[in-house]
Amino acid sequence: MAASMCDVFSFCVGVAGRARVAVEVRFVSSAKGKGLFATQPIQKGETIFIERPLVAAQFLWNALYRYRGEHISPTPEGCWAQQPLRMEETCDHCLRALEKAEENAQRLTGKPGQVLPHPELCTVRKDLHQNCPHCQVTYCSTECLLAAAEQYHRVLCPGPSQDDPLHPLNKLQEAWRSVHYPPETASIMLMARMVATVKQAKDKDRWIRLFSQFCNKTANEEEEIVHKLLGDKFKGQLELLRRLFTEALYEEALSQWFTPDGFRSLFALVGTNGQGIGTSSLSQWVHACDALELKPQDREQLDAFIDQLYKDIETATGEFLNCEGSGLFVLQSCCNHSCVPNAETSFPENNFLLHVTALEDIKPGEEICISYLDCCQRERSRHSRHKILRENYLFVCSCPKCLAEADEPNMTSEEEDDEEDEEGEPEDAELGDEMTDV
Ligand SMILES: [Zn+2]
Ligand SMILES: [Zn+2]
Ligand SMILES: [Zn+2]
């Protein structure tokens, strides 16, 4: 059953200067499904909409690492010894980074004495942080503590059993970590929060309708996705996760999600629709610096300082990619992909609020497209772009760039593709959208 259009917009939060969102959802074709279209002129750089997720969750490896503060041994996917440096504690509800921008800079540059100018631009308020009184999980504010409790945390709170390995939720999370190594691209806890949300909801049907809004795949397509996420032994692993998931969370109103077919569908839904969420108090501080009105000389100085800071971070930490977790966004999920997108997604508020911003002027009636590929992947040949999209999202791109390049046989050689395969890029690196705009 499709959700009503009203539901599709119900997680949008206001955009300054607009009475309502300047987009509508239309059915495009049976191949493409839905698409998002402008209803009013939108200018380059304008925020098209801001949306909060139906559910979001931190990646489990991140959460475990922060909590125990210990090293994770190298995984079959390769060593990730540098990962700990970018671990940052986040709000369990909105994924807001809880570290001050300056502390963040100190940790990432490895310079304990690093000082940031304009400290007032950092919005992290440690005095507002709260812990769940039962399980001690941390929130950025009373609002998040209450919102989590209201939506799903009453069901999921382990209480004093937070460390008990025999608690059903801990067994589930442990099983997940043992089958899904970093880089993490989906989270079993996102699925747990979906179930808990329905369990706690007064209007269960509304939530079930909302979750059913995300595109449905055929059984074969779902298997491909699960295979991609869990590897060759996926069938046995999926069954193990289903058993533990059922033990921890069974809900009569959702009995179909706990059947082998239903669980596979749920898993595929999270795998293809989960949007990576990257939060960082430092990048928010940088955005705020960019927005400052300064004398040309001061501007130059501040820009040079920030450039140097990023250089130092790169030297000390390597790539600064802050992906903390993932979420399900109902309106954004209606946005189709293009290799030449006219809009992009970002998380400039240092929390799970997704901003979709125009990359060029968009006329009424024009489709709004984002790219599911990061900028490096977008520069690749049509052949390898298609390979990534097919494997991770199961569709064949027919955007203007792909159509134009279809006539250029040189651009699509098999050789290039083989070469790229041998580069040995991390398995799941392509799954999420670009995580950060730092
Ligand atoms: Zn929060
Ligand atoms: Zn709790
Ligand atoms: Zn394309």
TrEMBL record:
It catalyses: L-lysyl(20)-[histone H4] + 3 S-adenosyl-L-methionine = N(6),N(6),N(6)-trimethyl-L-lysyl(20)-[histone H4] + 3 S-adenosyl-L-homocysteine + 3 H(+); L-lysyl(36)-[histone H3] + 3 S-adenosyl-L-methionine = N(6),N(6),N(6)-trimethyl-L-lysyl(36)-[histone H3] + 3 S-adenosyl-L-homocysteine + 3 H(+); L-lysyl-[protein] + 3 S-adenosyl-L-methionine = N(6),N(6),N(6)-trimethyl-L-lysyl-[protein] + 3 S-adenosyl-L-homocysteine + 3 H(+). Residues 407-438 are annotated as: Disordered. It is an enzyme of class 2 (transferase). One of its GO terms (biological process) is transposable element silencing by heterochromatin formation. This is Protein-lysine N-trimethyltransferase SMYD5. Its main location: cytoplasm. It comes from the Eukaryota. Keywords: Cytoplasm, Metal-binding, Methyltransferase, S-adenosyl-L-methionine, Transferase, Zinc, Zinc-finger. PROSITE patterns: SET. It comes from Tursiops truncatus. SUPFAM superfamilies: SET domain. The keyword S-adenosyl-L-methionine applies. Residues 23-373 form the SET domain. It is found in: Cytoplasm. GO terms for molecular function: histone H3K36 trimethyltransferase activity; histone H4K20 trimethyltransferase activity; zinc ion binding. One of its GO terms (cellular component) is cytoplasm. Interacts with the N-CoR complex. Interacts with EHMT2 and CBX5. Pfam families: SET (PF00856). Its EC number is 2.1.1.359, 2.1.1.372. InterPro entries: SET_dom (IPR001214), SET_dom_sf (IPR046341), SMYD5_SET (IPR044422), TPR-like_helical_dom_sf (IPR011990). The gene is SMYD5.
